[in-house]
Amino acid sequence: MEISSNGAETQPKFALPVDSEHKATEFRLFSAAAPHMRAFHLSWVSFFACFVSTFAAPPLLPIIRDNLNLTATDIGNAGIASVSGAVFARLAMGTACDLFGPRLASASLILLTAPVVFFTSIASSPVSFLLVRFFTGFSLATFVSTQFWMSSMFSAPVVGTANGVAGGWGNLGGGATQLIMPLVFGLIRDIGAVKFTAWRIAFFIPALFQTLSAFAVLLFGQDLPDGNYKRLQKSGDKQKDKFSRVFYHGITNYRGWILALTYGYCFGVELTIDNIIAEYFYDRFNLKLHTAGIIAASFGLANIISRPGGGILSDAMGKRFGMRGRLWTLWTVQTLGGVFCIILGQVNSLSASVAVMIIFSFFVQAACGLTFGVVPFVSRRSLGVISGMTGGGGNVGAVVTQLIFFKGSRYSKETGITLMGIMIICCSLPLFLIYFPQWGGMFCGPSSAKTATEEDYYMSEWSSNEKDKGLHEASLKFADNSRRERGRSVHSQTLPSNATPPADV
C-alpha cells in the first residue's frame, strides 16, 4: 500500500512491489501487469521479431546462393554486413534511450528497418543481397532498448533476471528463424511456387511480424514506471539531460569498454554461429536443408533457458557475494564457453558435434545474461550509453571474428570455430581489471576510504551546479537501492546517516 502525506492509506499504484524509484523488486514471468511486466513482454517480443528478420536468410542460403550465384566470399561478406550495421546503431540507440526513452527509440528503429526486410524479396545480385542484410541488421540495436527498458523497470535484486530473460527470449529469434524460414519456404513451394520464387515470398512473414511488433510497443508500452519521458519532462518530474554530459560519462567509464570486449566474445560469437552453423552442418555432414536447420535451431533455441539462466545466476551471486560474485561468475562461465567452442571445432562425428554445440550454447549464452547482470551498475546517468557500448561490442566481436575466421576459404569452418574458442578465453581476461571502489573487484575488496560509497560513485557523474538544481536525485535513489551489491556479509551493516532505506510500495 502507498502512504499519503497525511498518513492515510491509498490504493496500490503498481501490481508488483517496488522500490523508491518505483522499479519492481519482483519478476513475475507469467504476469502482464502494467507497466513493468507489460514492458518486459513488449521488449522481448519486438527484439525476437528483429532477430527473426536479421537471420531469416542463413537457413535458406543453399537456395539463395544458387539463385543469386553467391560465392563463399559473397556469403561471408553478407554475414559480416548483417551484424556490422548494428555496431554504431547500438551506441546511437543507447544515447536515444537516455534522451527520448526506450519506447520511442525502439519502435522508431523497428519501423525504419522493416521495409528493408520486404526489399529482400527483390534482391537480384550479390551486392543487393549484401545491402539488405546490412540494413536489416540495424534492427538488432533494439537489444539495447530492451536492456535499457528492463533496467529502468526492475530493481537491483532482479535486474539481471529481467535483462537475461528479455534478452534470451529475444535471441530465440535466431534459433526460431532456423525452423520458421525453411517451413515457410516449404509451404510456399508446395502450394505451387518454384523454389527461386518461394524464398522471396517467405520474407514477407518476418517483415510483417516486425512491423506489427513496433506498433504494439508504441501503443501499449511505457518508458518508466511513472510514465513516458515526454509527459514526465513536461510535468517537471523528470529533467531533460544534456546529450554531451550523458555521452561523456558513458564513454569515459573504462568498465563499459571492458564489458564491450567481453560481450564481443559471448554475444558476438552467438551472432557468428547463427550465420554459419546451418551451412556448416549442411556442407560438412551432407545433411538435408531441413535437418541442418533443425540442428542449427537448437543453438539459438537454447536461449529459452541459457541466457535467462545467466541473468538469474548473476542475481543469485550478487545477493550472496555482491558485485564480486557477479564478476567471478561471468568470467568462469565465459571461459568454459571458450573451452567447449574449441572442442566443437575438433570433434568429427555428427552426434558429438551436436552434443558439444548444445553444451557450448548454454555457456556462451549464459555469459550474455551474466554480462548484463553487471551493466546496469556501471553508470546510472549514462545507462543507455553503457548498454549501447556493450551491445555494440557484441556486434564488433561478430564482425571481427567473421572477418578473420569465416570470410572466404582461408580457414575451414571447423578450424575457425577452434580459433574462435581461443579468442573467447583471451578476451575474458580483462574482466580481472574491473573494480568498483564501493564493492571491489575480482581480486580486491572495496576501498577502505570513507568516500567509497554508492552515493559517492554515482554522484561523481553530476557537477555541483547540477546537484544544486536537484538533477541528481534519481541517481541518489539508485545508489541506495544498489547497496545490496556489497553482498550478504556486509549488506546488513548500518546505513549511512544521509541514506534512505529501500522502500517497498
Automatic annotation (TrEMBL):
Biased segments, Polar residues type: 490-505
Protein name as catalogued: Major facilitator superfamily (MFS) profile domain-containing protein
Protein's UniProt keywords contain Nucleotidyltransferase: no
Entry-linked Pfam families: MFS_1 (PF07690)
All copies of domain Major facilitator superfamily (MFS) profile, residue ranges: 39-438
PROSITE patterns in UniProt: MFS (PS50850)
Matches recorded under CDD domains: MFS_NRT2_like (cd17341)
Origin superkingdom: Eukaryota
PANTHER family for the chain: HIGH-AFFINITY NITRATE TRANSPORTER 2.3
Region (Disordered): 463-505
InterPro entries: MFS, MFS_dom, MFS_trans_sf, NO3_transporter
Compositional bias ranges of the Basic and acidic residues kind: 464-488
Similarity comment: Belongs to the major facilitator superfamily. Nitrate/nitrite porter (TC 2.A.1.8) family.
Family annotation (SUPFAM superfamilies): MFS general substrate transporter
Bilayer topology annotation: Multi-pass membrane protein
Keyword Transcription: no
Organism encoding this protein: Hibiscus sabdariffa
Residues that span the membrane, as ranges: 44-63, 104-123, 130-149, 169-189, 201-221, 327-347, 353-378, 385-405, 417-436
Compartments where located: Membrane
Keywords from the UniProt entry: Membrane, Nitrate assimilation, Transmembrane, Transmembrane helix
